[in-house]
């Protein structure tokens, strides 16, 4: 099958070529998918896209006109695809539901520890010969209460890792995780999670119901000085409300791997450009905020798995026009 890749990077080519072994005809493009760039897919049966490709109705209509029948997401989230429009147009959408939940969970802990122990600041100080400790006071994780929102594959591992530090785990999800219950985690309503957690870590998908889950109202219910970690999707957080709370001290620390307007920023070298997003620029000024550019998934284990499952999805579609990892509208 001919597959056109959008938003492709050198590492995508490397891992997909290694896993493909001549099975499919892979055509890599760095261009992001949009209604305009959809024309690159002309003559291909399938396209392969990533988290920030625009796969709204207009793009899908154009893809259908060019004869595209399959969209393979090389990621787990699918909030950037209009699934209802895809179904109407007869385009099937498949994804990689799990590649390495450990990669994302471990990055969550890495962010939290970096932020809490001020490693990002001490790293720079030490390189300049400054060994003063002022301003680097952290806090012990042992004994703290951690609220996990979304206790699926990633949330479960994050909860278990926090348990290893001696933290109490409070969970919120629309369905309960039996494994976590058996390990002593407790399910509570959102308000209780907000009011009792010292650290809140987000691991639910971005849906209409979860958009701006962390807004001014939610933040007002939290403990003063709360730490928030988001490695899920940027839209879960109302960034403007979070900035106000960081300025007032209501939020004590923020670690994010995702940002609600990240599609115009992330995955590209922007270092020679003037940053146009004033909200994001303000976030970067806080000493108690750390940001990574959607890299939580980025391990060799995960990339190998993503390539292998995506190509397997395409092979299933080629053979039977069905795939066990298809996503359909709710
Ligand atoms: P998962 O499907 O295994 O778990 C998601 C959990 O969220 C499920 O238990 C589900 O019941 C729960 N949920 C659904 N609606 C909810 C709601 N309204 N409120 C609370 N919980 C709700 O998914 P996962 O593999 O654990 O991934 C979680 C999220 O992590 C994904 O949605 C994706 O957005 C994000 N992610 C980020 C990266 C990264 O690199 N930063 C990589 C992979 C996944």
UniProtKB/TrEMBL annotation:
Instruction: Cite the D-isomer specific 2-hydroxyacid dehydrogenase NAD-binding domain residue spans from the record.
Output: 109-296
Q: State the UniProt keywords alphabetically.
A: NAD, Oxidoreductase
Q: For this chain's UniProt record, which GO biological process terms are given?
A: L-serine biosynthetic process
Q: Which domain of life is it from?
A: Bacteria
> Which residue numbers delimit the D-isomer specific 2-hydroxyacid dehydrogenase catalytic domain?
3-327
Question: What InterPro entries does this protein map onto?
Answer: D-isomer_2_OHA_DH_cat_dom (IPR006139), D-isomer_DH_CS (IPR029753), D-isomer_DH_CS1 (IPR029752), D-isomer_DH_NAD-bd (IPR006140), D-LDH-like (IPR058205), NAD(P)-bd_dom_sf (IPR036291)
Entry GO MF terms: (S)-2-hydroxyglutarate dehydrogenase activity; D-lactate dehydrogenase (NAD+) activity; NAD binding; phosphoglycerate dehydrogenase activity
Please state which protein family the record places this protein in. Answer: Belongs to the D-isomer specific 2-hydroxyacid dehydrogenase family.
Q: Under which name does UniProt file this protein?
A: 2-hydroxyacid dehydrogenase
- Organism, scientific name: Pelagicoccus mobilis
């Amino acid at each position: 099958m001919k597959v056109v890749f959008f938003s492709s990077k050198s590492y995508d080519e490397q891992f997909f070529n290694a896993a493909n072994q001549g099975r499919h005809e892979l055509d890599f493009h760095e261009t992001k998918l949009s209604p305009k760039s959809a024309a690159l897919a002309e003559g291909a049966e399938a396209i392969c896209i990533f988290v920030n490709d625009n796969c709204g109705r207009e793009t899908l209509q154009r893809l259908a006109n060019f004869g595209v029948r399959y969209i393979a997401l090389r990621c787990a989230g699918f909030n950037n695809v209009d699934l209802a429009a895809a179904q109407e147009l007869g385009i099937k959408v498949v994804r990689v539901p799990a590649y390495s939940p450990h990669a994302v969970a471990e990055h969550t802990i890495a962010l939290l520890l970096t932020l809490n122990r001020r490693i990002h600041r001490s790293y720079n100080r030490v390189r300049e010969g400054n060994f003063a400790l002022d301003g680097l006071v952290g806090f012990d994780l042992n004994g703290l209460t951690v609220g996990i929102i979304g206790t699926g594959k990633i949330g479960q591992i994050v909860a278990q890792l926090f348990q290893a530090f001696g933290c109490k785990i409070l969970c919120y999800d629309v369905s309960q995780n039996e494994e976590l219950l058996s390990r002593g985690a407790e399910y509570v309503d959102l308000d209780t999670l907000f009011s009792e957690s010292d650290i809140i870590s987000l691991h639910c998908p971005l849906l209409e119901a979860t958009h701006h889950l962390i807004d001014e109202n939610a933040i007002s219910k939290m403990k003063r000085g709360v730490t928030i970690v988001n490695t899920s999707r940027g839209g879960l957080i109302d960034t403007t409300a979070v900035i106000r709370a960081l300025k007032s001290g209501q939020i004590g620390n923020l670690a994010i791997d995702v940002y609600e307007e990240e599609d115009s920023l992330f995955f590209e070298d922007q270092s020679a450009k003037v940053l146009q997003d004033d909200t994001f620029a303000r976030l970067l000024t806080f000493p108690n905020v750390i940001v990574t550019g959607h890299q939580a998934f980025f391990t060799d284990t995960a990339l190998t798995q993503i390539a292998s499952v995506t190509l397997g999805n395409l092979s299933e579609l080629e053979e039977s026009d069905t795939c066990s990892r298809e996503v359909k509208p709710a």
